[in-house]
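Anyone up for a design puzzle?
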């Protein structure tokens, strides 16, 4: 890259001449050529040198020799090209391990102990804590070689024994203390609601009552200016959310029946769609056979080129249409099943969370199904999808939040056939189905709605 920039600068007349001790050139075609040759030779030398160094390192690892400068306590031996214990420093290292193994030293006191023995930093000060820890955890003193963060067996003499090294490591682990982190407050509904007046996020804080009991309150952060919205206690906010979830929940008997029905429809449609897919595949094969026959006829010279091109375009267009139909059919037949099943499971989960005390799960569920969550005048609001709105409207007619299903109640064929057509359906399309416009769901969940007064749950 640097050579290319230099040549570009020469072409732009920014460099007139280059002169070195063994080479020089002028800005001529011959000079530029020789400069490129010199760059190529230097690149080859650099790459070849790097490869030779890596090869040498691999050879030293095979021979179990130390790589690089010797650590403190050892000295390099140029004759053996390995390291060996230093007469004085090795004894100091062993003494440092033995003193720390007694458990009476800290990093600072051990650094002072080594300073008294003449082991200091370049500034003639005691070693830092990190240097002491590196010394006490260095596996080279056990006779190992380190390369790229990994340890390999070495053939040089160790300074300390494995038992002494392990004793020191045990003391180090006992004295290690994890960094203390400031405990975060547990405010489960933060980041969920916005203030309906100013649009700021709703924050939380602790408050202590007269009896000394602590409460969690939620309020507008007022990041966008003055706001007159009051505080709301967490228990009241949770009660409103759970009450809202209760309005969109369905009893277990109904959800289990609906899930079983969806599985039945899926199996029926899967079996009936196999024949359709097979017919489309056969039509595609027929089109391919026609194309091969057309090409053979044209190559034999039986039809003119204009006729061949016209028929070819027709067959290609028909094949493309069949392929698209097959692709749409295979993908479209599954698009209505999973959204419907997911919606049924959401109504089942809403019934569970309406009775649960896990506020974090309630928050995640509201984020999943709700939109535009706001708080105004100590009241929480969030919009629901159309199928959930239908359930909330019908649930308002029930006497109890989750009544048991009547064994003898059942839906008619016309009321349960809203998903049997095989076409693509989503949650938004469920509100237009006939079953959601009748009282079939109410009759299934409320066995006494014909003879009792209906109560509306706000």
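Challenge accepted. My sequence:
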């Amino acid at each position: 890259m640097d050579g290319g920039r230099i040549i570009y600068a020469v072409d732009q007349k920014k460099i007139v001449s280059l002169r070195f001790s063994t080479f020089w050139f002028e800005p001529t075609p011959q000079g530029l050529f020789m400069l490129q040759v010199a760059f190529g030779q230097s690149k080859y030398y650099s790459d070849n040198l790097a490869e030779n160094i890596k090869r040498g390192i691999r050879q030293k690892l095979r021979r179990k020799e130390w790589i690089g400068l010797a650590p403190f306590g050892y000295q390099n031996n140029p004759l053996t090209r390995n390291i060996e214990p230093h007469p004085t420093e090795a004894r100091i290292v062993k003494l440092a391990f033995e003193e720390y193994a007694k458990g009476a030293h800290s990093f600072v006191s051990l650094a002072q102990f080594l300073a008294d023995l003449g082991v200091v930093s370049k500034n003639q000060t005691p070693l830092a804590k990190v240097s002491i820890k590196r010394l006490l955890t260095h596996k080279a003193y056990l006779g190992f070689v380190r390369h790229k963060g990994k340890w390999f067996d070495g053939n040089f003499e160790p300074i300390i024994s494995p038992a002494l090294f392990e004793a020191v490591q045990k003391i180090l682990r006992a004295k290690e203390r994890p960094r203390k982190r400031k405990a975060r407050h547990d405010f489960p509904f933060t980041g969920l609601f916005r203030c309906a007046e100013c649009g700021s996020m709703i924050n939380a804080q602790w408050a202590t009552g007269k009896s000394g009991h602590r409460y969690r309150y939620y309020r507008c952060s007022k990041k966008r200016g003055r706001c007159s919205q009051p505080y709301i206690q967490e228990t009241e906010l949770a009660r409103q959310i759970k009450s809202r979830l209760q309005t969109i929940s369905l009893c277990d008997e109904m959800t289990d029946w609906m899930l079983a029905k969806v599985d039945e429809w899926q199996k029926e449609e899967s079996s009936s769609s196999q024949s359709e897919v097979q017919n489309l595949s056969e039509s595609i094969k027929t089109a391919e056979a026609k194309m091969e026959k057309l090409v053979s006829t044209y190559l034999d010279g039986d039809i003119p080129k204009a006729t061949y091109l016209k028929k070819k375009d027709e067959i290609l267009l028909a094949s493309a249409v069949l392929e698209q139909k097959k692709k749409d059919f295979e993908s479209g037949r599954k698009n209505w099943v999973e959204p419907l099943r997911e919606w049924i499971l959401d109504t089942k989960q809403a019934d569970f969370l309406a009775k649960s005390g896990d506020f974090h799960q309630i928050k995640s569920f509201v984020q999943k199904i709700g939109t535009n969550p706001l708080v105004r005048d100590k009241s929480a609001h969030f919009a629901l999808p159309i199928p959930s709105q239908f359930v909330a409207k019908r649930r308002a007619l029930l006497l109890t939040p989750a009544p048991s299903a009547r064994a003898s109640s059942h839906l008619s064929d016309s009321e349960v056939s809203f998903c049997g057509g095989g076409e693509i359906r989503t949650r938004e399309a469920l509100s237009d189905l006939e079953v959601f416009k009748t009282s079939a769901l109410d009759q299934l969940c409320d066995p006494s709605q014909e003879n009792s007064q209906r109560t509306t749950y706000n």
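A detail worth pointing out: Confidence is low (pLDDT under 50) at residues 399-427, 440-458.
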